[in-house]
Recover the amino acids of this structure.
């Protein structure tokens, strides 16, 4: 066990880890290590060969690999060190990182600061409790995406998709373009979990039916999936007898949501938000453990990679400031309370005296709202009210808080963000 020391260790070499590394180096931190478990940098973007990335960051429409390569180039230009095929096994609150790979075996490094950028994973079938056998032909949508786009394998010819998250919608189009017949996309909730543009471009354009308030109630086939039965569900999300529809197929793709990858965060003693399953952070993206920061999908699941990169750059900059200056002592913090339809906020609290000039607070709503307003209160005083024609859980919303405005309220105790009538 060789104990090597770094100023900054970044766990994860996807879009979040890369952007954080670049921002930290540009703030003057020389001694940085990125640890990535895959065989190349870029993370999940390597298998996202569709376009739609980079409109905010580069003002161009790029594919996932193109977007990743822009940041990989920036990392290489700056000579930032990285280790591939390396699995982080443990992180302690004292910022010791235990990792292993083939070349070094098991090794330990200490860091002055750590950025968590592990991304997220898909919900498994086990978490969904679908009855039936365990035949071949059941894939998570992300696994199918990797097989088709990176490995060159076709999972099947006749497909049913459960869940209308963005990966499921994109795979409906991808499988169709590769010659498969996508029979139906079933969604348990009364609304889609994906972006509106993906419903239009991936389902409507290919005449693929989307059935809301439906779920899979039976899977037939012992060796390989032979048919799937879906049924309508009531307001209690339980199947309604007599509404069953049977589809013959050889493949079932599951696109039932993403969960931030936070096992390492738990071992480091980091407090997690029950709603997002990600760390609770302040405006500088620091967790409750001194010197450990988090960004990207490990914090909460984003709908645009551009927002991941922006957030990661903030984490990289703040980790650099922490390494150079340490923590600001005894700084007043103000909690942001999500209420009335707002499920959570990231960050969870802010430091009015230490924060950047403007802080973007991102959140998701818990239902579909039409012609409502996003409202911000400082204690009980109304500060802003912004009308939104449509809000849905599949799309992230945001509120921008300004340091200048907060300075007018030195005795502020709580910021409330909620959904109200216009």
């Amino acid at each position: 066990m060789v104990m090597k020391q770094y100023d900054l260790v970044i766990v994860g070499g996807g879009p979040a880890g890369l952007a954080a590394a670049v921002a930290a180096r540009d703030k003057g931190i020389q001694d940085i290590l990125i640890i990535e478990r895959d065989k190349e940098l870029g993370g999940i973007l390597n298998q996202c060969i569709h376009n739609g990335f980079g409109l905010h960051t580069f003002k161009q429409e790029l594919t996932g690999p193109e977007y990743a390569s822009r940041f990989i180039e920036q990392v290489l230009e700056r000579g930032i060190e990285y280790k591939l095929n390396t699995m982080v096994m443990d992180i302690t609150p004292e910022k010791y990182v235990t990792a292993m790979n083939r070349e070094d075996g098991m090794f330990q490094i200490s860091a002055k600061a750590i950025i968590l950028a592990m991304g997220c994973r898909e919900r498994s079938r086990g978490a969904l409790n679908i009855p039936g056998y365990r035949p071949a032909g059941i894939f998570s949508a992300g696994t199918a995406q990797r097989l088709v786009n990176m490995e060159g394998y076709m999972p099947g010819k006749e497909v049913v998709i459960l869940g209308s998250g963005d990966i499921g919608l994109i795979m409906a189009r991808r499988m169709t373009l590769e010659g498969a017949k996508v029979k139906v996309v079933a969604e348990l909730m009364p609304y889609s979990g994906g972006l509106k543009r993906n419903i239009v471009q991936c389902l409507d354009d290919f005449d693929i039916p989307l059935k809301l308030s439906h779920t899979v109630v039976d899977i037939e086939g012992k060796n390989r999936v032979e048919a799937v039965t879906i049924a309508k569900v009531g307001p209690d999300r339980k199947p309604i007898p007599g509404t069953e529809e049977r589809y013959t197929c050889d493949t079932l793709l599951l696109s039932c949501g993403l969960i931030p990858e936070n096992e390492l965060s738990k071992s480091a003693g980091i407090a997690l938000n029950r709603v997002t399953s990600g760390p609770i952070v302040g405006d500088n993206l620091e967790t409750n453990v001194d010197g450990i920061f988090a960004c990207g999908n490990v914090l909460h699941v984003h709908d645009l990679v551009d927002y991941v990169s922006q957030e990661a750059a903030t984490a990289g900059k703040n980790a650099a400031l922490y390494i150079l200056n340490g923590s600001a002592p005894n700084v007043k913090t103000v909690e942001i309370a999500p209420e009335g339809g707002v499920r959570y906020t990231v960050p969870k609290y802010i430091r009015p005296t230490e924060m950047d000039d403007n802080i973007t607070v991102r959140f998701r709503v818990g239902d579909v709202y039409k012609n409502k307003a996003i409202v911000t209160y400082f204690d009980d005083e109304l500060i802003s009210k912004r009308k939104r024609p449509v809000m849905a859980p599949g799309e992230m919303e945001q509120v921008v808080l300004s340091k200048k405005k907060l300075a007018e309220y030195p005795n502020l105790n709580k910021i409330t963000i909620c959904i109200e009538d216009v």
About this structure: The chain has three domains: 1-122+257-327, 124-256, 328-422. The helical segments are 15-26, 64-77, 141-151, 166-177, 196-203, 263-267, 305-325, 403-407. The first helix runs from residue 15 to 26. DSSP finds eight helices and 26 strands in the chain.
